[in-house]
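Z., the sequence and structure:
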Amino acid sequence: MALDSGIGTLAGPGDVTAPVAKTVRTERVHHGDVFIDEYEWLRDKEDPEVIAYLEAENAYTEAQTAHLGGLRNRIFDEIKSRTQETDLSVPTRMGEYWYYSRSFEGKQYGVHCRCPIDAAAEGIDAWTPPQLEVDTEIPGEQVLLDSNQVAEGHDFFALGAFSVSHDGNLLAYSVDTSGDERYLLRFKDLRSGEVLADEIAGTAPGATWSLDGTHVFYQTVDESWRPDTVWRHRLGTGKDDDVKVFHEPDERYWVSIGATRSEKYLMIWVGSKITTEGWVLESDNPEGDFRVIIPRRDGVEYSAEHAVVGGENRFLILHNDVVDGVKAENFVLAEAPVSDPSNMTLLIGHRDDVRLEDIDPFASHLVLSYRREALTRIAIWPLTESGYGERRELEFDLELFAVGSGANPEWEQPTLRIGLTSFITPMQVFDYVPATGELLLRKEQPVLGGYDANDYEQHRDWAIAADGTRIPISLVRKKGLSAGPKPLLLYGYGSYEASMDPSFSVSRLSLLDRGMVFAVAHVRGGGEMGRLWYEHGKTLTKKNTFTDFVSCARHLIDTGVTSADRVIADGGSAGGLLVGAVANLAPELFKGILANVPFVDPLTSILDPSLPLTVIEWDEWGNPLADKGVYDYMKSYAPYENIEAKDYPAILAITSINDTRVLYVEPAKWVAKLRATKTGDTPLLLKTEMSAGHGGVSGRYEKWKEVAFEYAWVLDTLGLADA
């Protein structure tokens, strides 16, 4: 039912009333198609009636979940008891200091610190991080920024830029205190501790120093939240004196600014979903003019890093252009003179089974990052006097893992900091020594309470999609579970070539220890299996993302891992689109749907170029404004537009009022229409964080509470609240 005006109510379980949004007839007309949207009025968050509706939904959700308060508290306490609240990160050397962060029991945010290196240390000893203890005074320790102090008085806090000048004397940092991802950029003199008068509002989250520390480059965003302009700020001058050094008018492109690892060059990158272009300037000439590396060509992506090979300055260029008449979908690596970047020599050719992702040059070696068999890999490539030595891939004795290069700011360091994790392996930080092949463990994420990785197991399974494609599934569970179908949380994302790599989660133990299985469906649209895996799950093949997820669920049910009454589908943002579409496609396969900041009204958003991020998204979804075929295709899968009068799984949707990426109105409209349309009595809940952005609440304790809220709902939905 729906009411003509105001907020009505429906009787819910236990006679608790569910809010019912009023309906206001709004026509959306495109390509001759008329869609009647009765809940578009919820878009105006300045309207007191909209806020009243969201608050009514929050009150209903709280009432419906009040019986889970004890379980939420227990899960929160479990997360807290397993976490070493007072801790230190592994120090990273930069210049004459070791940099690290601290966390303290009872404090929401981290504290950034440094201490001086041992000036007498030589060789590898000079690169061996000090063994710092949380309860021992650290000689010469300096607090650079205490985020708890900066966040004081704010309901939300996010740190954006945190960049120390090359001489170690100055800090540029930026903060967001509303969740809208527009930051206030400030500067601190680390010698005196004084926060300088320079202050720049409305920046994107980043800051890059010139080599001499006289200038900082930063970005601003346009009305659609697209980073479109790079500015140069001279320290000690007013914002009005800042110089615009680059502007990108094409709304399909984002702009970023950074530096090469060697610090020799500043780099501006301009990128759409399918095209990139780089601009370069010597870092010791901050007032000079940037020059293009290789002019953009539609559909060609590339990156460039500076290396010194055989005594010559070179650019190492990863690109997906045509090589020998064939499009290099998974990218190739080439080198070129800095003076003539288009004069490339191929170093690593194309492979269908390997997706090249990154190249990090050091003074004596290169680090190559890539994917093979849906897992990340790292190889070390020595540089010799004449060129290149023999590559060596690092190997790890785990079936599933994720490995990546960590904090390595120094050009001439003799070690490589890497991080290794898996579903059952807490994050391990290593220093690899290329000269000797040693892999030195510096720290493993502490998990209190007697955690033993041997009590859990992880493995890879494969589902078969309708078109015969094999879809990887990652699973983790506690060993020794009883026979028969298990309760299971199936997570998916499947967009933007983002890969859902294995990672450890302290909070997830609260599910695993109650007998649940956690699974990740690595569906098309992600990047786990290479560029074509992404290409076959976007634009006019987007439905593969949803049908792949359904195939994974069916496979897990058919093989007895779980059963349809024991599966929760979980996804956030574009993953929220996934689980929203799946709720329409195959509701019978799921007991519940957990949707975080879900992109469930994609067609309305992508049709409106004035909304944040819409135009740049056309390369991902297609342009329904210009193309009727795209319009029809998106309308055929959009979760909001395909709601039907049928039974749906239980649904919990969580959103944030200040989210600029997926506006709160999408899940608000989705839930309103579901409540008015669906049959059956399964719970339907909407929770709106009234002071947060796309990433949800801020502060680690608040995030733990949010996880506990979600997990309590998951367990209750599966009948495990008392497990």
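The chain has twelve helices and 43 strands. The first helix runs from residue 48 to 65.

Let me know what you think.
H.
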